[in-house]
Design goal:
about 325 residues; alpha/beta; Rossmann fold; 11 helices
């Protein structure tokens, strides 16, 4: 049985990691979050030692190590901009690391972590769960068997409505989350590059506080994409819902709305078996999201996603679309 420590226990994604640790038969020895709304621990590991101060958490892990109960894995569910610092923390404690996506915000952060990983002798793994989804695996196999040189036509739409709270939280701060393309889109960009090969062209048509749209050309596909957190962009077929996912390949819809429940557990099983996805796996999507974040939007020219034409929305706190994004 491995000893785990969790950073970011109060976050939205933490329960999936808690479930994965429990379902793979391991122990959560300690957890940290500056927020104390962590009653979810009772459903998985009520005996876990919990800390709201990082220094005490650090001291406790050192105490466990001195007592012969060192942490084997550190799981990271903290805000995106803190991932690389928390990864280094885990490596310094002599633990392997499992980090939620996005692994880091910028390509140079990942390059630095390669050095830390080599120096520590430990491994950094990230969650790229769409690579484990049965429908996505089936699509990858189908594309691999298609005619050599064929370029598929793909439309990707992902809308996950968020309320005004989003803009007050760290997720609404592009310096901390990386913005729409990184925060909600990076696992789709990873999926696209995993299936369709090397990226050849990356164009951005729209990029505002609540949506982004663009065009990607890969070795085996041309992709129009649209991401949004604005409920007003939901299509008629999503009435009564807050989330809409759709991928069409050569006008054929790929159904993958179900099957997400246990993908984190499958990810943990893979990591614990010595496999999983590491820095090199994550790099293409990190680079893609970084380039999208820093590109000047072209507007509605060329081959753009149909939903990119929707009227732009005012920022709920008075900011307007088109506010420049600074480099992180």
């Amino acid at each position: 049985m491995n000893n785990f420590a969790l950073i970011g226990a109060a976050g939205y994604i933490a329960p999936r990691h808690l479930k994965a640790i429990r379902d793979t038969g391991h122990r959560l020895a300690a957890a940290y979050d500056p927020q104390d709304s962590v009653g979810v621990l009772d459903s998985y590991f009520p005996e876990t030692d919990f800390f709201t101060e990082f220094e005490r958490f650090d001291r406790h892990l050192e105490k466990l190590k001195r007592g012969g109960q060192a942490i084997d894995y550190v799981s990271i569910c903290s805000p995106n901009y803190l991932h690389d610092a928390h990864i280094r923390f885990g490596l310094r404690h002599g633990a392997d690391v499992i980090c939620e996506k996005p692994l880091v915000l910028n390509p140079w952060n990942a390059e630095s972590l390669k050095i830390n990983e080599l120096e520590s002798g430990k491994r950094i793994a990230t969650i790229l769960q769409l690579r484990l989804h049965p429908a996505i695996i089936e699509l990858k196999n189908k594309v691999a068997q298609s005619a050599s040189g064929k370029k598929h036509t793909v439309d990707l739409t992902y809308i996950t409505a968020r309320g005004n709270w989003y803009y007050t939280s760290w997720k609404g701060d592009i310096q901390k989350s990386g913005g729409i393309a990184t925060n909600i889109g990076i696992h789709f960009f990873d999926m696209l590059s995993w299936i369709f090969g090397e990226l050849q062209l990356n164009q951005v048509h729209v990029h505002t506080h609540d949506r982004a749209a663009g065009f990607l050309e890969f070795e085996k596909a041309q992709v129009r994409w649209f991401l949004s957190i604005n409920a007003d962009t939901l299509p008629p077929e999503a009435v009564g819902k807050r989330t809409f996912r759709a991928i069409s390949v050569d006008s054929e819809l790929v159904e993958f709305s179900e099957g997400f429940t246990d993908l984190h557990t499958l990810s943990y099983q893979s990591v614990l078996a010595g496999n999983g996805f590491g820095l090199d796996d994550a790099m293409p999507s990190i680079q893609m999201a970084h380039d999208i974040r820093n590109a000047a939007p072209l507007g509605l020219v060329g081959d753009f996603h149909p939903l990119a034409k929707l009227p732009l929305a005012k920022h709920p706190f008075g900011m307007y679309p088109g506010t420049p994004f600074r480099e992180i």
